[in-house]
Design a protein that fits this description.
about 280 residues, alpha+beta, seven-stranded antiparallel β-sheet, elongated
Length: about 280
């Protein structure tokens, strides 16, 4: 009986966490470069149930042998194993601001073992000087006219240096070259982007602290375009996300009703125990 409480309760917890994840996706549906998170829900290992039994052997003197008679398997509940970002590119949104830059994937290699397609990122400088990565190209000019992200991180060029401009009159070509300084926007490439760790503000970091390959000046068989005056929109499908939230809510509600049914059954058992 008590196993049913744990099974239904684990289902409620998993759906609550999934609802929170979907709500975060929906709240960032208009955040430039945001990559939606997807949850993977798995079942706990099943328990094998058996009944203790006793068999009589046809011998001259009565002989009894104890054994186990299989009953079946019992599920012990589910849990949300992990969340993985979806790196499908978002649509381009025109802003006509010179500091807004969109990174467009043209061709990226696919991993032969996992079938995962690689992804390009802007290189940015973290608060402790470490290298971080983002798809959010909504940049701005800092106090000293450095090219920065909207949350205050420095944008790096292909050499890992900060980009400092002298005026607002500059252009960036499709290869990422800045007309005013001659610097090239640093573009990193990850063959397995799902291994990256997602931080707040749409930032990604390497789990081992390593730097990704900068391909903005490398001769590789991968192509991208830089579009000035545009930003990459979020890849969240608001309609589908709302539908998934309703499904998660109904699943949560169904588990809660099962929990209530177990609770009423336990109340009846207590009442019978008192009568006896």
């Amino acid at each position: 009986m008590f196993k049913g409480f744990y099974t239904a309760g684990s289902g409620m917890i998993a759906q609550q966490r999934r609802t929170e994840l979907l709500a975060n996706n929906l709240s960032n549906a208009r955040t430039p470069g945001f990559k939606e998170d997807r949850a993977t829900i798995r079942s706990f290992p099943e328990m094998f149930l058996a009944r203790m039994d006793e068999h009589s052997l046809p011998t001259q003197h009565p002989l009894h042998r104890k054994g186990l008679a299989p009953v079946g398997k019992l599920s012990t509940g589910v849990y949300m194993q992990e969340t993985l970002p979806n790196f499908i590119p978002g649509s381009l949104l025109a802003t006509e601001l010179p500091t807004d830059v969109a990174l467009v994937d043209i061709f990226a290699t696919t991993d032969a073992e996992t079938g995962e397609k690689g992804t390009f990122f802007f290189r940015i400088e973290g608060p402790n000087g470490e290298e971080q990565y983002t798809r959010n190209g909504s940049f701005a000019l800092g106090p000293n006219r450095e090219l920065m992200t909207s949350y205050g991180a420095y944008v790096l060029d292909s050499n890992g240096d900060r980009i400092q401009l002298t005026s607002d009159d500059f252009s960036i070509d499709q290869d990422g070259r800045i007309s005013e300084t001659g610097q090239v926007l640093g573009i990193a490439f990850s063959q397995n982007p799902s291994r990256l760790v997602k931080q707040e503000n749409g930032i990604f970091i390497h789990p081992d602290g390593e730097r990704l390959l900068d391909i903005s000046q490398e001769e590789v068989n991968m192509y991208y375009n830089i579009q000035q005056g545009y930003v990459e929109g979020s890849n969240v499908d608001a309609g589908r996300t709302m539908t998934d939230m309703m499904t998660a809510y109904r699943t949560f509600e169904a588990n809660s009703k099962v929990l209530q049914a177990y609770d009423r059954s336990m109340e009846k058992a207590v009442e019978l125990g008192r009568i006896n």
